[in-house]
Fold this protein.
Amino acid sequence: MNKPFQDKQNKFVCPVSIQRYPNVLLAHGGGGRLMNNLIEKMFIPTLGASHLKSKHDGALVELPTRRAAFTTDSYVVRPLFFPGGDIGKLAVNGTVNDLAMCGARPLYMGTSFILEEGLSMETLWRVVQSMRAAADESGVELVTGDTKVVERGKGDGLYINTTGIGMIEHDQVVAPSSLEQGDVIVLNGDIGRHGMAIMTVREHLAFENVIESDCAPLWDLVRELLDAGVEIHCLRDLTRGGLASALVEISEAAGRPIHIEEREVPISEEVRGACEILGLEPFHVANEGRFVAFIASKDAERALVLMRKHPLGHSARIIGEVKKGNVARVTMKSLIGTSRIVHMLSGEQLPRIC
Amino acid sequence: MNKPFQDKQNKFVCPVSIQRYPNVLLAHGGGGRLMNNLIEKMFIPTLGASHLKSKHDGALVELPTRRAAFTTDSYVVRPLFFPGGDIGKLAVNGTVNDLAMCGARPLYMGTSFILEEGLSMETLWRVVQSMRAAADESGVELVTGDTKVVERGKGDGLYINTTGIGMIEHDQVVAPSSLEQGDVIVLNGDIGRHGMAIMTVREHLAFENVIESDCAPLWDLVRELLDAGVEIHCLRDLTRGGLASALVEISEAAGRPIHIEEREVPISEEVRGACEILGLEPFHVANEGRFVAFIASKDAERALVLMRKHPLGHSARIIGEVKKGNVARVTMKSLIGTSRIVHMLSGEQLPRIC
């Protein structure tokens, strides 16, 4: 679908009359003419969803393989726009990444909006455009959707749910249960960017270099590994709870000990500085474009080379391995050479980071 | 999965310690230990989702057919509990029905919660149990999920998104594009119950007989029609915007005129009375267990007999037909014999009805 909303200066213009409807009204979620206009004028042409809800209760889709991955996530990030992204880009990439972490090619996506009465129509329009751009980048088709409006004070501008179906086009079982002793853990880049991008905006911290979110779609990088026949045992993106929580979850799910080396985990100066100021632990801070891959040791070097050739993996590092035994525990050799147990984030650290 | 939370009196007890956590905290959405506890102790055992999010980023599923339906909906109904249902039952049945209206057998479902900080844990627990009961009733498997928490005053207790994948196990194309002149329109029961159940609670209206929501899963009834080989051209449940909006949408999508007879559309005395008091038009009021089926005229009588044998169709009626021509217009012969054009609900009527 092409982009039909350019004015004479070739700038995109909002397809819903902003003069007439500068803000979202309760009626935009009422199931009547106003909701239909919003769907038909903004959502369908922009998101390219030819069979969106207004025309049918669901999308009819063709599934090319029998093995699939299925995922859903709601996004409540605050603020809606942040350095390196916005709630729309985050919502699409987040679901793309959840599918990629299952080793699945993202194919179809559903999007559901909970709008707060009074949300600026222009804000919605910017977010919707951002979702389309993100979907195009990953080649995922937005096929179905839903719109609800809640009263002023009962939301926070905009919440988005995305849900995805991905196809598994290989024979590998990419899951914690596939972990084996000796598996090498590769991390695709420096950690803590997304969480600190959000927190520096919220806390009005100023650094010489703005911390940008690492929000990015990971399927293309995962696909390269799969296409090369790299034996991948498990993948996990490092979202809420950060690297530490992801490793603990995998260790617990697999019932195997994991060991990592702190000095191998890249953290930028800005992120480290911001974490110190706010009293946060970078290993617990959320990322939106970083993941760990558990690779059969025979393929580890090859995987590392492949990842480093990719824009989203150029600073990839081997950070640790799966150890012998059946104890669920993550240990880390610290910078000063001591070994300690890594824990999952225990309480609240960064609310509404995604 | 059995129900593991019975105390000695055989009553269900909340698996998360209510004494320790009487209310939802921000940390329950933080990606750390508290969120994991909520997922592992309440969501996974109750919803029966053996491969829910905490263990993997998405669910790996087997798809028995290539043709599928895919749908997503967010639920923001207020109040959370109402006569005849609650937000959990509504969220599961709503997605089951969207799939059924595509002629698809509901197979997998994802559930995503947006909780407001301070929500009573017992309320959440009641809703989760209700979701499980509804899922069991339709034989749908809850396979993946997500949990977010927003600050007090940024939500309204609880919003739920459900998303579903359904399998199309027949060769019919159930969609507005299949409409043909002469198709008979069958309605499975009286209209307006769900909307008026909500409104009478909100407006504190008291009637001799409480109006209960018609919230119900429609797949079993649709399946009976499909299994009998009834030629179904289109199905649509009568949710937001009611019967009138659904017919106008279908007429517009199909580019065909539709005619109905007002006297054939059943409306209970209670619903009619409540609508009069509140100044609402029953044809625009939402339903959650009512649908129209566009049936090839040769099969109309057979479909009606089948539907009337089913508990959710015992008062089914033929209410109209698809007329000749290619004009998108819905007309209705009124009780007094005049004919008028039926319009889609134009603005806001009943906010947050689902």
Notes: Residues 26 and 149 of chain B are 6 Å apart (CA to CA). The longest helix of chain B spans residues 121-138.
